[in-house]
Structure formats: structure tokens, C-alpha cells
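Bit of a strange request maybe. I'm writing a small parser for C-alpha cell strings and I need a real example to test against, not something I typed by hand. Could someone generate the C-alpha cells for this chain?
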Amino acid sequence: MAAGKRVLLIEDDISLGELLVICLTRDSDVTVSWFVRARLSADQDLVLMEADGREVVFTAKALASDFDIAFVDYRLKMSAMTGIEVTRKVAASKLKVIASSGLFTLNDELIAAGASAAIDKDKIIGRALKEPDFVEKLCSEK
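Reply from user aminoacidic:
Good idea to test on real output. This should exercise your parser:
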């Protein structure tokens, strides 16, 4: 079991985000904080918006201490920041980022921006359903 791993999920598609949360938490001790949009605060901290519109501000220190891994989508509709900008900001905090766009060429751009690896969304769902320790494995990979 993925003992207490904490996932930051940045995914703008509501249906897909809900499905990813269910799959990642289904048979494991993983918690997922899911956000649909991103912007920077006046202090250059990352402000993430939940699907219900509530915003949460994260300093670089908070990102690194509150989460074990982040999944970031490339396209964030109606967001002030793109997935590339979010990836740069999150990776700079020393949090491991996994690119999770539906198009692999876009994942390559997220890797260039600082993501450690890339996984297509359908593969995240499949692996999470088959492997209860999927998130823990990702966290431990270099």
C-alpha cells in the first residue's frame, strides 16, 4: 500500500479529474488534492483553484512539504497559467512532477519545463486500478 502518499493533481477536466481521484485513492492510502486552475499571487506564490472555485495559496515550501508528487496537465482551460508555467513553478519547489497530458508531444514540453516523467492519463487510470502501490512506486523512482 502507498502509505500516506499525498498527490497534487492539476487537471481542468472535471469528469476526468473526478475519475483520476477515484482511481488513485481506490485501493490505497493515497490522498489527492485536486485543482482545476492556477495563477500567481502578488507575492509569486502558486494559487490553485478547486472545482468549486475555492482558492488555496501554496508557497514553494508548502508545495514541497504538503505533497509527495504532482500530476500536471498541459492545457488548463480558463487558467491564468499554462501547464508549462505550473510545472516550472512546482518543479522549482523540489516537488516531483509527472506530466499527464493526453497528448504525448505535450508531455515532452512539460518534461522540458521540469517534469521528471510523463504518463498518459489513461495509463494513470489503468495502473492505479491494477497496482495499489502505483503512487508509491512513482515517488520512489529517480
